[in-house]
Amino acid sequence: MESRPRVIVLTDISSVVGGYAEPDDTQSLVRLLLYTNELELEGLVATYTNHGHTIHPQCIRMILQAYGKVHPRLVEHDPRYPSRETLLGMLRCGSPRDGPEQVGDGKDTEGSEWIIACADREDERPLWILVWGGITDLAQALWKVRHTRGEAGYESFKSKLRVYAISDQYAMGSMVRDQNPDLFYIVSGDSCRGMYREGDTSLAAGAWLDTHVRAFHGTLGAAYPMYDGGDPWGRVVGMKEGDTPSLLYLVANGLGEPEHPEWGSWGGRFRRAAGRCYVDAEDTVDGQARSARAAVYRWRDAYQRDFQARMDWCVRSRGECNHAPVAVAAAETAAGAGLHPGDTVRLNAAGSYDPDGDELSFHWEVYREAGTYEGEVEIRGGAAPVAELQLPPDSGGCTIHVLLSLTDKGEPPLTSYRRIVLQVNG
Q1: Where are the beta strands (DSSP E) in 64-110?
Q2: CB distance 322 to 411 below 8 Å
Q3: How is residue 96 annotated by DSSP?
Q4: Which of 367, 354, 402, 364 is CA-nearest to residue 384?
Q5: Cα-atom radius of gyration of the chain, to the nearest Å?
Q6: In the sheet that 415-423 helps form, which strands lie side by side, from edge to edge?
Q7: Among 257, 178, 209, which Cα is nearest to 18's?
Q8: What's the half-sphere exposure (Cβ side, CA atoms, 13 Å) at 211?
Q9: How many CB atoms lie within 10 A of CB 244?
């Protein structure tokens, strides 16, 4: 079983009901809890919000109470789901105020101290900090380590961290990444809007949510609020979840690789800007204009079906529900060593299977934006378990990302992926 990412979430959650304050964090929290079997969640930090200029840990507690009531069903599907008590034990309060003046001597918070404690644990895995609001508590943790451990200790501490921030919010803005160009830092500026804007927006509408999430899916589904508010592009009704791409980025479904933001995943695709900072990259979907949002909404059908299935897990037994297929894929060449322009590559996913015994469908494609080869690459037999492609004559020195999407015939149909990165000798 794959190693799970370690995660702390900093959230400016402020409401658990639609039409008041910003309930989108609550929406994202409900989805996050359904993936706590895939992630090793270590902290939930309630941070500063501009709705009342305070923190709202009680909102997190309310959603954890709802989660606790469906937990017995969830562990039937995966015993790794943590208990409500375990999750309550990692709830911490962050700074009730925001801005650079809240960082410094005597400014420690439960949240900043918890970040330090978690990062100091003996664990070879990095610690992911998902920033859904203000970043003051992370800034304070960094400040304290720098001023108590010296530069060497500070560099060692930062090397353990990975940050995925939803925009540069509040007065802190980009201060943390500007001051720490060597800190692994992803900032989703516009790509996060692809969670709910453009593409097939019916999958984010209230009717879809009422059917597949809010009604007849137990206490956790009932706790999912209907968003009714706005953003700079107009009114949003239904699902917003602008913070959710940060957690979808870490889902180990075979599509993304967290250490390679430029590869793309359910949580978007990113390009290196400066140092170790990554910003939005653009994808093209169905011939439409390139956009950062497309790097998220291109996967909406798959991540919403996965959300739907996990909501079913809250109220139904394992035998009554669908589970994702297991994709197994390899690339083979006649020579058996090295890849050169003109070579024929055999793509083999015949070993893939479905845990529920469902029939499978296969789709091979080249994820052009993720690689460095910009030309066309034809895949023969792209809908079969075994396919092949011929490396173009001008592909020397390039990388070509071949993506297998494996979808079962269950209800709802679920998709897993395998990515094969072909490095062509120059």
Answers
A1: 91-93
A2: yes
A3: S
A4: 364
A5: 22
A6: 360-366, 399-408, 415-423
A7: 209
A8: 10
A9: 30
Kindly give the residue spans of alpha helices, DSSP state H, lying in 78-191: 84-88, 110-119, 136-158, 175-179
- CB-CB contact of 139 with 97 (8 Å): no
**CB-based contacts of 378: which residues, under 8 Å, 6+ apart?**
389, 390
User: What are the phi and psi torsion angles at 274 (to 5°)?
Assistant: -155, 140
Q: Report how far apart the first and last C-alpha atoms of the chain are (Å, whole number).
A: 36
Mean pLDDT by 10 residues, the chain (426 residues): 88 92 95 98 95 90 98 98 98 94 97 98 98 96 98 98 96 94 97 96 97 98 95 93 98 98 98 96 90 97 98 98 98 80 96 98 97 96 98 97 98 98 94
Sheet with 40-46: list strands edge to edge: 91-93, 40-46, 6-11, 127-131, 161-166, 184-188, 277-280, 270-274
- Looking from the CA of 335 toward its CB, the CA atoms found within 13 Å total 9
Angle at 111 between CA 106 and CA 112, to 5 degrees: 50
How many C-beta neighbours within 10 Å does residue 319 have?
7
In this structure, how many other beta carbons lie within 10 angstroms of the beta carbon of residue 2? 7
* pTM of the entire predicted model: 0.97
